[in-house]
């Protein structure tokens, strides 16, 4: 199995990413770290523990991390993910407690213990990843790879007209991470922006298929109640009834790199100022900036194929 640490701000699509990973035999879930983003850290951590228990994976270590971005106030988004981060879903209070160690410590200690083995998949603002690399500058070399959901290049933004959410919440953390990873021979991070993650849209007929195949039960109800809220949000802001499943698609692409193509290695920077541009990702397309490439960016994604797989995994998980 592929050893993964997931850094999440659960979050409706983060919850689905956790379920997808928990339901995938190819994944060794080394640990999960939580970061404030979609909602406050306490909600994120509670949701994460509860979702893992729903998936029968309550034994996975969950370490809480940053409660706010590096140098800006937290601006949570209850209109996107619901007041507590999981739409209209309700979950029993989790039995498990968060780990004694912090998110950054879990990431660094696991990477040191298993050099070159672990893929760190960042599905929220990059605050924890920045904290971890500031503490252990060798982190980029100790990981197999860093994979990030964030940014947008050719697609419009989903937060301001030009920025993606994870990058907008903590632009300084994103800038720090992009400067410190992918240098001096360390593996280039994979940066999956809206250009690819928006190809993965879950639609009402997928939910109907889930219920028809899996029947009624806590997992199916959770997915329906969480996604129902996300569908309403997308209907209001994106003009379709359904939802982009950004975070699960990122995990799916780690398991099956064939879901991504049109990959470019690019020098990518983060804009830190401006009324609408803080968090904007810009690529040095022509190499005029003189910086070497610091990440790999895919521009084509097979989101449709992935969503079928996501439904299959949810059906299998519900049957356990
Ligand atoms: C990202 O923002 C969050 O709301 C989602 O969970 C995803 O990680 C998409 O821009
Ligand atoms: Ca997220």
In words, what does this structure look like?
The chain is an alpha/beta fold and 320 residues long. The protein has helices spanning 12-22, 41-54, 78-81, 103-113, 127-135, 139-142, 165-169, 171-180, 194-197, 204-214, 218-238, 246-255, 303-319; strands at residues 2-8, 27-34, 62-64, 119-122, 145-149, 190-192, 201-202, 243-244, 260-266, 268-270, 281-283, 295-301. Strand 1, helix 1 and strand 2 form a beta-alpha-beta unit. Helix 10 runs parallel beside helix 13 (303-319). The mean pLDDT is 97. Bound molecules: beta-D-ribofuranose (BDR) and calcium ion. Residues 11, 13-14, 38, 80, 123, 149, 158, 164-166, 246-247 line the site of beta-D-ribofuranose (BDR). The site of calcium ion has 7 residues, from loops. Residues 4-304 form the Inosine/uridine-preferring nucleoside hydrolase domain. Its EC number is 3.2.2.1.
């Amino acid at each position: 199995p592929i050893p993964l640490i997931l850094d999440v701000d659960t979050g409706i699509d983060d919850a689905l990413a956790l379920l997808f990973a928990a339901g995938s035999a190819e994944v060794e879930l080394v640990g999960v770290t939580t970061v404030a983003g979609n909602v406050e850290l306490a909600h994120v951590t509670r949701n994460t523990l509860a979702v893992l228990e729903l998936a029968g994976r309550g034994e996975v270590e969950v370490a809480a991390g940053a409660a706010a971005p590096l140098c800006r106030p937290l601006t949570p988004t209850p209109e996107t993910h619901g007041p507590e981060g999981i739409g209209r879903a309700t979950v029993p209070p989790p039995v498990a407690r968060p780990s004694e160690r912090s998110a950054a410590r879990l990431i660094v200690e696991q990477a040191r213990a298993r050099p070159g083995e672990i893929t760190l998949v960042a599905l929220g603002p990059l605050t924890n990843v920045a904290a971890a690399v500031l503490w252990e500058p060798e982190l980029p070399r100790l990981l197999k790879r860093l994979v990030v959901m964030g940014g947008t290049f050719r697609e419009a933004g989903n937060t301001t007209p030009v920025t993606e959410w994870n990058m907008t919440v903590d632009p300084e953390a994103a800038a720090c991470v992009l400067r410190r990873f992918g240098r001096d021979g360390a593996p280039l991070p994979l940066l999956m922006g809206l250009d690819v993650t928006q190809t993965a849209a879950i639609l009402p007929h997928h939910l109907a298929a889930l219920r028809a195949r899996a029947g009624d039960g806590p997992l199916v109800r959770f997915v329906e109640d969480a996604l129902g809220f996300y569908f309403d949000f997308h209907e209001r802001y994106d003009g379709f009834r359904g939802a982009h499943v950004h975070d699960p698609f990122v995990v799916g692409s780690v398991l099956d790199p064939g879901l991504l193509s049109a990959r470019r290695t690019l020098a990518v920077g983060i804009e830190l100022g401006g009324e609408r541009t803080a968090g904007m990702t810009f690529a040095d397309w022509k190499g005029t900036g003189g910086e070497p490439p610091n990440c790999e960016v895919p521009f084509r994604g097979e989101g449709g194929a992935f969503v079928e797989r996501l439904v299959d995994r949810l059906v299998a998980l519900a049957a356990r």
